[in-house]
Amino acid sequence: MNQIEQHKKNKKKSLVAGLLLLAIAILLVVFFTGQGAMEIGFFDAQKILTGKFFGTEDILNTFKENEIAVVWDIRLPRIICGMFVGGGLAMAGAMFQSLLRNPLADPYTLGVSTGAAFGASLALLINIIFAMYLPITLFAFAFAFVTLILVIFVANRGGGLYSSNLIIAGIIIGSILSAGISFIKMTAGENVSAIVFWLMGSLASRSWTDVYIVVPVVLIGGLIGYYFANDLNIMTAGENNARTLGVNTKRTRLIYLIVGSLITAACVSVSGIIGFVGLVIPHLLRYWLTSDNRTLIPLCMVLGGIILSVADNFTRLFFISEVPVGVLTTLIGGPFFLYVFISRDRRF
Amino acid sequence: MRDSIMKIENLNFSYGDSPVLIDVNCEIERGKFISLIGPNGSGKSTMIRLICGILEKDQGNITYKGQNIDDISIRHRAKEITVIHQREKNEFPFSCIDTVIMGLHPHRNRFEPVTEDQLCLVKDVMIKTNTLQFASKLTTEISGGELQRVILARALVQQPKFLLMDEAMSDMDVNAKIILTKMIKEMVDEKGLTVLAVNHDLNLAYRFSDEIIAINEGEIYDIGNPNKVMDETLFEKVFRVKADIIKGKGFFILDNIN
A239 to chain B nearest CA, in Å? Predict the structure, then answer.
């Protein structure tokens, strides 16, 4: 019974790790809302948050209006965005890696993010040239969605929605859109910096509007992903095996394709292109704990959120002129992943 | 009267212009260990793939327990029929026991935890397939032959009535091959499991099969008792080799024929 007991123990270990990470994430949200140019302590921040959350006027009256505004309207939305973008990208990464049966896949493999970037660049260009205020986030999201449809269409015409077809279709459409972005950048002339900064990925000055876009998509997407996780596990054994094990492979594939892409689209529309979180977090968790997507997907949500939000608050608090967090995640995440990759015991 | 579990009628299949299976007709008898033999490219694997629904047939009929196989739902089919291919692999580091538990998938509802009874079954099968000692190792850490044993365990946990094997044991050592073939034969004799196995090890096929289906260039060459089917003409005509037949024991391949 030894081996069986071991198996049960491993399942418990993942649960404990998950709960621990969740507690850390919640503590971090409160901690970070207290940090910044305006000094507000941990407990004051916590009081403002609970006061606002439950609408308790008594608590709120003891604080100045601008303190409440800084915590609730400036810092909190940015921190929530960081948590959900990081978590969303990591979950989408885990889904795409399993779905495409490729440990090197990430949320950007299918070109959906490039579609979002193209949409955002286009909106920025139009705004610059015609002095308009097109909603960049919505443009990004819409273009990401159109790109997804295109990739599915092309892969399907190219022989079916199989891993290799999807990756190739993603690469082709992604590179066409990249060229489009370059063209837009060139057209923008000396105003190009706005586009360049958006593309680098940042969470600076995100508002509640952004929260309303990213949170529902990531949450619902994550729940759907969690619901079908057993099927996704079996899909990693290959499509044919999955079918003989009783998995409706066509349905499962389409579900994860859409869910993973929508999560990615929402994240990219809100934050620009933030690299590495979606590739590294699922890998680390597989390495440390398990490949079981039923555990992996929720853990990705929490750990991805923690990592991105720590990185974002690092750029917010320690740099005089803010470094885009997308640059930071890749600068720090890259070498770290390199270290893990070289020192691994050939387990993944 | 034969008690057949599966009927294959006028089965035709071609890749593009080149026909692979031509007008295949046969009946698979319930509770028998049947080996499918033939040279490379004769259509054995294609036949297995058509039966388990990986490929779609051009023409013909496959009925399982009297029902057209295309009309059986994926989930229900998984409870009845499963297949083990050769050289399975998984890029992702699942533990061996998690992989075996995947075999329970068609028998479980989505959020039902694995019951103690099911865990007992898993343990039982893993002892039989000699995989329990590396149950918590990752599938990426074990050898090809060991992985094939894990996959066999997964298939048995699925509790199929009809087991298809496509050279499932070709990566295993001689000892494991004999032990597992005996074990499967036991399940055939005692529990009424039906097995259709593509086998390149003709000696094993001869010793353990109740029936042989010999297939050559997409057509059925012969069907029947191993003693009847596996004779000198089969070796000469189908496999293009000269063989010494030791009745009741096996074969010794002498030389090729050009």
Answer: 9
